[in-house]
Design goal:
A: alpha/beta, 8 strands, B: alpha+beta, five-stranded mixed β-sheet, two-stranded antiparallel ribbon, 2 helices, 17% helix, 33% strand, globular
């Protein structure tokens, strides 16, 4: 697979934008450094969204609006009443339905020209490689670190860029992991963080973090701007502060140190 | 019990750029409280509702720990933020 400067895979199938697409996406196509080429890359990309909860709903909405050509959404949960303060693709009429089915219906109405693939499965070590196969970017919409670590390992094995996002209350975090280039999640958290119990959350926190994750995905795929590779962005909504932390690779990381040696990646 | 608390770099601005701070305490909770008492603005990020926030991830000498764990003289307590919700 060929990679752009930012590490994202470059689309192989040439796409010619129609007049309708040039008009529809015109306001982002005119962004300096993005252009028609950027839109073509988005349209020929395959983005995997793991988890269709607070983060995953907002992530997949903005991917669909941006014109990402193929969005795969993964979740095995059903919609519950307590989801409806934040999971904006799920409505009262959807309670009891699979989240992927509920979300796919609306995403297809948002953008009928893109492909939506719902996958109603729980991510495990056994199925994760099959699920992420062919993804140009993997976006984290999970609600626990245990499954995130499974996904992180698979992204490293498959060299898939992984955009981590997490929320708790009014606090959120985002970083972009490019295997072989940046620290992976196991470098950042050498021990599995404790489950936080029932996590308090307002809908606006995952909405903000999801927007940042999609911003990262667009730049990564189209190959412009600066991403959060090697940096963690923190947002504290209680005090309205943003903060950054430089991340360091763990030279003894059990997940990614071997791949770094093979690839020679040493950007950060 | 003197313990060294490693500060996440995003919070250096609240600790006068100290990367690690020596505090006294018998438990992780007491150590973090002592840190907060010395640098009160840390409460903005490390506490919610007067308690150490559930997203504060603790390690003692590179092993996973919780705020209730006891510490020994010379231990190194690492504090990180790890929000797991989605």
């Amino acid at each position: 697979m060929e990679y752009s400067q930012s590490g994202a895979s470059i689309c192989k199938e040439p796409i010619v934008l129609s007049d309708n697409e040039l008009y529809r996406y015109g306001r982002q196509i005119i962004y300096p450094g993005f252009g028609e080429k950027g839109q073509e890359k988005l349209q020929s990309s395959n983005v995997l969204v793991v988890g269709v909860g607070g983060l995953g709903c907002a992530v997949s909405i903005y991917l669909a609006y941006a014109g990402v050509g193929h969005i795969t959404i993964v979740d095995d949960d059903a919609v519950e009443l307590s989801n409806l303060n934040r999971q904006i693709l799920h409505w009262e009429q959807d309670i009891g339905k699979n989240k992927t089915a509920s979300a796919a219906v609306k995403l297809r109405k948002i953008n009928s020209s893109i492909k939506i693939t719902p996958v109603c499965r729980h991510i495990t070590e056994r199925n994760v490689d099959d699920i992420i196969k062919g993804a140009d970017a993997v976006i984290d919409g999970l609600d626990n670190f245990e499954t995130r670590f499974v996904l992180n390992r698979a992204c490293v094995r498959n060299r898939a860029p992984f955009i981590y996002g997490g929320v708790n209350g009014l606090l959120g975090q985002v970083t972009t992991i490019v295997p072989g280039e940046t620290p992976c999640l196991a470098c950042i958290y050498p021990t599995l963080p404790e489950a936080e119990g029932t996590i308090p959350v307002f809908g606006v926190t995952p909405a903000l973090v999801a927007s940042l994750q999609v911003m990262e995905a667009i730049k990564l795929i189209a190959g412009f701007g600066e991403t959060l590779e090697g940096r963690m962005l923190y947002f504290n909504g209680e005090t309205m502060e943003f903060a950054y932390e430089d991340l360091a690779k763990d030279p003894k990381c059990s997940v990614c140190s071997a791949i770094r040696l093979r690839s020679g990646g040493n950007r950060r | 019990m003197s313990v060294r608390v490693i500060i996440p770099s995003l919070l250096y601005k609240y600790t006068a750029n100290s990367e690690a701070v020596e505090v006294d305490g018998a438990t992780v909770q007491e150590c973090i409280d002592a840190l907060r008492n010395r640098y009160p603005e840390l409460e903005r990020w490390l506490y919610r509702g007067g308690k150490v926030a559930t997203y504060v991830h603790i390690g003692i000498n590179n092993r996973k720990a919780s705020v209730d764990d006891r510490v020994s003289d010379g231990d190194e307590v690492k504090v990180m933020l790890a929000t797991g919700g989605g």
